[in-house]
Design a protein that fits this description.
The chain has 9 helices and 11 strands. By secondary structure, the protein is of the alpha/beta class. The protein has 2 domains: 60-233 and 290-298, Vaccinia Virus protein VP39 (Rossmann fold), CATH 3.40.50.150; 240-283, no CATH class. Helix 6 (164-173) links the parallel strand 7 (149-155) and strand 8 (175-186). The radius of gyration is 19 Å and the shape is globular.
Length: 299
Amino acid sequence: MKCPLCNSTSISILERVDNNELNRRYKKLTGITGLIKDVVEYCECELCKLRYFFPLITGDEAFYNTLQAIDWYYLDQKAEYLEAKKHIERTDTVLEVGSGKGAFVKFLPTKQYIGLDFSTNAKEMALKDGIIIENELIEDYAAKNSNKFDVVISFQVLEHVSNPQVFIQAKIDALRVGGKLIIAVPSEDSFLKYATNNVLNMPPHHVTRWPDETLYYIAERYNLQVLGIYHEKLQNIHKQWFMQTLISSSFIGRSLLSSNFIQEFVIKFAGFVSKCLVHGLKEEVLPRGHTVMVVYRKR
């Protein structure tokens, strides 16, 4: 077993995930059955600290089309959009990888934008707003468009891919020297790492998890300069989830999936209590939120 980012064989198995329980929860969410055939191991690389699920089972287009039918799956506004736009100039050429329906376009100061996404549904949704999205893999696109873009960016995409080495290298190949690579992912240094039953942070949706240490390792491995790393504050939509996670993990500890009646009861009780406590969270003391964004420069 090798780390999918650094190829190290120094791997720790943190937890084994019951595929039957995972499938049950995905069926409840999507209606799709039998997504995961075998027990999945949740691992950590001792060298680069990447956390990942083995085997790296990713969803197909039918799986993502089902998720896209959920109204909250594609948000038109995210905190990382506002942060990312600060690093983009009016004259920049921008390539967004995993663009979805192109919601980020309206935040851009430049009109020179191309989006890539493998979802045909996303492309159709984008066309309704006059946004052109290509159904092409970044590996194929970069081979024809090397050293072309001032900014290559992806929001909540890296955690979905089974070969992060190839994915990251292709984005760098499409970037001109001195250009910016911007990556936003769910933060493994936030409350998310303690959240139980968060199946969308598990395969076949998410197959990797990214602490800050791993994001800095990317710069070392690919000869990039880190210009900044930004943790969003806890967003309103996630406040109750954070409080529920904080309460339940205090009683049952950390586990990816609840496995018995007691754990289920504690989680539901924590959800009830969190509805009351969430109003006491003050803005000035909010913890780290869902997303971390890092900005690199290509040397």
